[in-house]
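LAB NOTEBOOK - FOLDING QUEUE
OPERATOR: T.R.
BATCH SIZE: 2
PURPOSE: Compare the predicted structure-token outputs for two unrelated chains run back to back under identical settings.
PRIORITY: normal
REVIEWER: second-year student, initials M.K.

ITEM 1
FIELD SEQUENCE / FIELD STRUCTURE:
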Amino acid sequence: MKIEDKKRVLREMVLHRRFEERCYQAYIERKIGGFLHLYPGQEACCNGVMEAARPGHDYVITGYRDHVHAIKCGADPKEVMAELYGKETGSSKGRGGSMHIFDGAHRFMGGYALVGGPFPLAAGIAKAIQLKGGDEIAICFLGDAANNQGVFHETLNMAALWKLPVLFVCENNLYAMGTALALSESETDIQRKAACYRIAAEAVDGMDVVAVEAAARRATHAVRESRKPYFLECRTYRLRAHSMFDAQLYRDKAEVEAWRHKDPITRYQAWLEANHMVHPDDLMRIEAEVAAEIADAVAFAEAGTWEPVEQLARFTYADRAHEPAGEASWHK
């Protein structure tokens, strides 16, 4: 990767962190409602993987901690912020909110609130690619807690049997909401679960974007060449609560503080500085540019329109006014 690309990755990671921090503030201000799951601490996972993928070409799907994934795939931060505000100008017209960001134009196939929900959808996307003979791959991001779902095992089994071009990326942040990994999983070395289905797998330091990118390049290359599944476990940590409703009574403050010293952005920045690829002026410029971009996103969201009440039945099964001709009797 060229030096300019490395600087770009740092800028994007800073943008993602500041975006999430601004979401936190907007939630406190009651401008964002519902559930809100933030990504700080895990930025190396999404950024490292997507640097090795082909954004806009490969298909990406994830769970409900999805803002950063959408933006990294190419979604406009302004539209993502507007979606969080529930505005019609949002990426899903305000109907999805935080947990259901979607941007089909950039092949980001959505965030899903159902734990384990993306697994079979990712397999279906990979099967469609296979049937069409395309060179794309499907990338499914998942959390460690979802590995206890039966659909996890069913999907890995089918992906292996059908030889599907799908990369499973487990963002293992050590907690299933408020339950520690060791209390919910008899096998805490998650990548070994994939090996049970004869799927190539490896684990990587999910707080190191350089290491994640290197592992993801091996993984994406393997999937593209073999057209078979691959499993990558990124061992990471969320620096914020599971959601805005989480009091974090299940983990010690000293533990969180220890992980803060492994902050993926600080770590990557230090690596760039040590290798003379970034300088203080670059860092100041990045922060200024990001601050302006976040301000634009918030302004766009706040100026966005609400969907008219008379249109609330659109995009639902009760949307009779937009039924194709000759199909109006299906519900009778």
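ITEM 2
FIELD SEQUENCE / FIELD STRUCTURE:
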Amino acid sequence: MYIAKLRYSIKKAYKQVINSISFYPFIIAFSLLALSWGVVYLDNIKVGKAIINKVSFLRIDNPNTARSLLSSLLTGLISLVTFTFSMVMIVLTQVMSSFSPRLLPNLVSKKGNQVVLGIIMGTICFTTIVLSNVQTMPTGQKVPVFSVVISMFLGFVSLFCFIYFIHKISNEIQIGNILNDIYRTTRDVLNRESDSNCYVENWAENETSVLVKAWDSGHFDTITEKVFIRKSKKMGLKLSILKNQGMYVLKGDSFLKINQPLTAAIKNLLEENVLLRHQELIRDNYFYGFKHLTEIAVKALSPGINDPGTAIQAIDYLMDLFSRLQTLRGQKIIRHKDGTPCIIYAPVPFEETFYLCLASIRPYSSEDVTVQSRLITLISKISEQDEEDLHKSLFEKELNSIEEASMQVMKSQEDMQFIKALLQKARAENLTKR
């Protein structure tokens, strides 16, 4: 039991570490620090001097010149990394206050900013080691000439990285790019799910099952499938998940079903591989993409922001994503190589997701004709793709809700007539389709 909890904590910590803003900076900085020791060693055994002699125009063998150069470089890099960290914090604060704090994990986990920070910090470590070896080498030359040249080269690399960082950070703070990034990430995950051929409609369980309650609280995001599949095959274990991905699971809730009695070994396997976290990463759970786009639209329509253009763009992206989500029908079944089921996920909650997204946006858009018309278009387009009328009643209820909310809030008769005409057209098109 203790070992299972320890492994679970390690896996959970591993997920958090690799998505941390300090992960790549630490790896790159430590690598350049190790490189500095290796390069200084080459200078000590005079290999570095032999290399530099072939490009003598780069040679700096005067101790005072080398020390002044490295000191200036080190001072500039420290100022650079301070400014870079300040820019990151400003961007994160801006995103949190203007859009949604749930966007932070996805922004922080971006590799580009982490690599830039890592290179600059690594160059500081490298330059510090080289500077400490000027006039302190035990034999021969007083300046590690090869190390000085590498420090200069890394300084130029850091400068170019900083220019790239300024360009990247100025683009990332633009709401259009944030929306596009969320959309593309969610779209790619949905496409991957659609191409997996793992979804089965009308799945029926024929075996008796044992209910397993949640052993911890947190958002159910993912399962370490490769490890679980390998170990569950030996046990003949089949796992059914009762909660949708992204839902918050309270300790003691009915969470899982298995086809065997719950033994200590099975309990350890579940606790090691079913991860409950408190972060919202779209690449692990595509439903977070719908949630983030909805939150941005709601925030944009709030009186403090009042940016209907952003809300319309978010609704357009939701329209495309809902059309893709609609193709994922039934339940996702992960199988062993021999075709036997291993992990059975809960049914795709299309109707619940669709309702919650539109219900969140609708109250804030009731006075805005443009946003209301875009919501009607969204419902109409998704309804057109529902060829089997699986969600007919849902779409009709949403159209009725939009009409009811608009008529209660709108004061202009012209606006009311415009919305009524759009609603009538949407209903007529749906009837014609059927």
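REVIEWER COMMENT (ITEM 2): The chain has two domains: 2-173, 175-365.
FOLLOW-UP: none requested
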